[in-house]
What does this fold into?
Amino acid sequence: MAPQRFTFGPFMLDAGSSALIEHGLPVAIGSKPLALLQALVEARGQVVPKAALMDAAWPNTNVEESNLTVQIAALRRRLRVSPDGEEWIATFPRVGYRFAGSLTIQEPEAPIVEAGPALEADPSIAVLPFANMSLDPEQAHFADGLVDDLITDLSKVPGLLVIASHSSFAFKARSADSQSIAKELGVRYVIEGSVRRVAGQVRIGVHLTETTMNRCLWAERFDGDLADVFRLQDQVVRKVVAALANVLPLERMLDDAPSTPRRTTIIEAYDFLVRGRVLVMHSPAGNNLARTLLAKAIDLDPNLAEAHAWLAISHYGAAINYGEDFKANQALGLAYAQNAMSLDMSDLGHRALGYARLCEGKLEEAESAFQTALRINPNHADTLANMAGLRVLQGQP
It folds into this structure.
């Protein structure tokens, strides 16, 4: 039996070649959104569970559910709304998604033009955990912190899809080549590197690979005083943006590389920050330890906005997830979120405020905070997941 074609509005999806056509022309769409779209239309109006969709887009791969949320959002943006003004894809909270548009199924009369591999609507990249080349194994948290910051900074680059840190760090203990990892994560570009921190000096080695042809696009080594680590990190972001200039939107040139948040100049405070933030809402014990570490960071640098923001989020977790004193954690969470906002109105600060407003049951104010965070950093996977969770609470698809 010949593969079927599914027509809806101006689009036609050919199931045989996995090609999406709009007004007779091939659509540039990522492989993950395309796989999700095919799974949804093939269900013919039935709700497709989240697990089935994740299997369709990431077969035999364990990924965070937030990746599904991000890719569904990307698919919705690409399809826009139907001719009657409705969303093509309906959300069923905690269950899955359903293709809600009018669908025509037809058998192909003749083979269509070979579409080739699906094109990425936006260039996609994963920053893999950097190797800790320091003599002290305890410095691994420092390397991890730099990677987490790079992911956050790169996610602010318009037109660049950056894989969430949860997914990238899943490969920390796995031995696999960059091409295999890129295939599992559904990305075209991969950043790998190493960090050596010795006696007040730091060396960061980074290379960027285009994985379809296994080409090294850029590699460089950065050396400097430990106090200059954030300047070196900013240089890495700018060099990556420059290396991808030919695939990013034309108006996004090197001078438009994202601004970075206000960061501490006290490296000991940064150490406590990166050790603490990774434990926030990890577990009840981890969340408590996170608060201790983040408080030490603030003791060393009271103006470290990021530590205040993560403390706010940890108090939300204590109140909502772990059943600790609700009123006390609610008040502390709001206070730390407001502190963070007074120091730096970053996307993380707005996200922390959103958590605080959720804890108060003020859903409209939480929505406003999360939306502001997304305006600052539209590609941040965790904030997109926060907004999706809020939509469920509001009873909205």
Summary: The radius of gyration is 22 Å.
